[in-house]
Protein 1
Amino acid sequence: MKMYSIQSIEAYKMAIQKGFLQSNKKYQMDHISYNWMGKQMEKRLNGYSFDNGIIWLWKDKPKNMYKWTGETGTKMVLLEIEVNEEEVLLSNFEFWSCMIFDLNNGTSKEDFYEFYGYKMEDVFEMRSLKGFGNTIQGTTGKIVIEQIKKLKFFICR
């Protein structure tokens, strides 16, 4: 399955040296929603450990990546990768974004369901969720260098 990931030049260089890209948990946000996603990945992806962090992926090539990925002037790289479906947990990006905001601002799972009419686990449903877009994101624990098929270097604006 073709997916995309945006990484810093430093992360990419380190991946070349090690032979794989793996998130460093110390650089990840310590949010309730990120921790929840990591635990879901442990449940749903065979062999995944949240101790290794999360690498974010996109099903479609990101648009306007120059603007939303980092501070102005930051050097980044867009990776086009080929991954096995069993190694990726797919979810609805817009629904996830809503979850991040609500959970990190004290909304309970029960209140979330009452307000939206969806359980948090519905983020993994690959069907249309009324009121949310259809952008598909993915999460994985590791990308082996051989999985990288194309690169595009860019500078954030």
Protein 2
Amino acid sequence: MKIKRIDDIVLGWSRIEQKTAKSDRESCKEKTLRTSREGRQLLKSLAFQEYSMILQDDDIGKGPMGKPYLLHYPHIHFNISHSGDYVACAVGKEPLGLDIQIHLDKDCRRTARRIMNPAEWSAYEASGFQNEYFYQCWTRKESYLKYTGEGITRDLRLLEEPETAHVQYIPLNLWPGYSACLCLPKER
């Protein structure tokens, strides 16, 4: 596990062991379960390290829109994200949202049309349709939706100022070929 501090937020991540042999291939469901377990383990490690909390799986509840929270520690907030070879977890004493995303080597324009507002699309176009810009935009939006707890439940093109004026986005450069973003309250 690697750790990075951002003010009073602690961010931990680890590389997920990949199955390579044909006999070890996993289904998507199996990989999701494994990365979820690894995310919970990161949470438990960070909570113990930072707050001397010993968490069990049944200490984690889900809010009305599915955002996980700590049942017995409402003053501690966390968020877990996984993509590609990595799983990451952020823990702190204020609401937060974290998203990581591997950069796939494909044309992202169709998806970009569905998530970008006109100003974002213009900037994406001006970048020469660079995938890095697309993934930075994606992780920013998803980190906000994880911050609010609503998840991807609406048209992402409509997600912009002034609705998001109360938060700050911290882009994270953790690994080559990935984008990551942490969303926090602006007034801290």
Protein 3
Amino acid sequence: MTIAPTRGTRAWSNLCAHWQTRINQHNGWTCRRCAKRIPPYQRSAWQLGHPHDMTTGPTPLEDLEPEHCRCNTSAGATAGNTARAGTTEPTWSL
């Protein structure tokens, strides 16, 4: 199993460029979260997402796939909120 590169690195940028080429060649891609089309030639329309939250360990390279930006960030927020559900909010005194 190959582990996905860290976001923001050259390896991550190369991986995104690879996926953009695949999206363009297929005249679009289907977002795995909402099943709607990701248009070709629009890099700002998608992010590489993973199907599970990061608390289960590093993401295998083969699990990464394009998702709409909104779908990916929403899934991340949901996972983060779920992970924090057992924590208590700080008590602020005035």
